[in-house]
Amino acid sequence: MTQKRIIIVICFLLVCMAGCGEKTDAYLETMQQVTEQNHQIPAENTEPEKNAARPEDTAAECFVYVCGSVQNPGVYCLGAGSRIYEAVALAGGMTEEAADTVNQAEPVFDGMMIRIPSISESEQTKEKEAACADGKLDLNTADVTQLMALPGIGEAKAKSIIAYREAKGGFSSVEEIMKVDGIKEGVYNRLKDSVTVR
Fold it and tell me: What's the rounded Cα separation, in Å, for the pair 137 and 156?
């Protein structure tokens, strides 16, 4: 009777162990599947990131208007971060009359107008800047428009000043302006602090 009980107990233990082994194998197999799935998830998630366009990879476009002394004036499209020289190149380059006064290394921006002046335009600009130096207008270089900005000087008097200047070869002093027809001491006193002679 004791031996039978021992045999029964041994058989019961064997059955239990066999059952636990199957459960262990099933558990290990399930864990392996979960691990494989976990390894696959990052790969799936990183794929869209590789294909997604990053802001720094997508260059914005800039439309610029190139005019003046270039071969083909017009509106041109460049990538963000482009320089003026690239826009000038798209416009066919500068003409022979172009002045080299524009900083072509400057970056462009959307809606920018790039004007390449001619040599004559550049010289006129320099003359006007010189005429307005120190806030005083040079009677020997000022044009009609600039002279008309002076107190007491209209279009007729401005033209008279230029005519006198051309006839006499220029003014030698500010006081000489009173020799111009229509300009007397009253007008002179109003504009004397605004003009100079160089």
Answer: 18
